């Protein structure tokens, strides 16, 4: 079972995001802070790492697909905060540009 398989078919609740914040391998990145249309407050993007092979991932909840998707991934040596932010911004602009967002500042699972 992969991380994507274990995520629910919805954004995470704030409590679920807080639970992940204690993890060494997964951290919440973006929390929607205001309700708009059918979107509820919650965690919509995650940062994850895998040890075999050593990779860094940005995951996002795609409302069109109704599931979590890999937004981008890098070998650990290729990952940078700038690449992470660029991937995150592009995904959010494509899917949630009209909603108020709060970036948690989590990087590399911290």
What does the radius of gyration come to? 13 Å
Structurally, the number of domains stands at 1
Mean pLDDT: 82
SSE sequence, one letter per element = HHEEEEHE
Percent range of helical residues = 25-40%
- Poorly predicted runs are 104-110
Number of helical segments? 3
The outline comes out as globular
Describe the structure.
It holds the Pfam family DUF7964. Residues 3-90 form the DUF7964 domain. By secondary structure, this protein is of the alpha+beta class. It has one domain (3-97). The protein contains 3 helices and 5 strands, in the order ααββββαβ. It has helices at residues 3-6, 14-21, 81-96; strands at residues 26-32, 42-51, 54-62, 67-75, 101-103. Strands 4-3-2-1-5 form a 5-stranded antiparallel beta sheet, sandwiched between helices. A hairpin with a 2-residue loop joins strand 2 and strand 3 (54-62). The radius of gyration is 13 Å and the shape is globular. The protein starts with a helix and ends in a 7-residue tail after the last strand. Mean pLDDT is 82; it is low at 104-110.
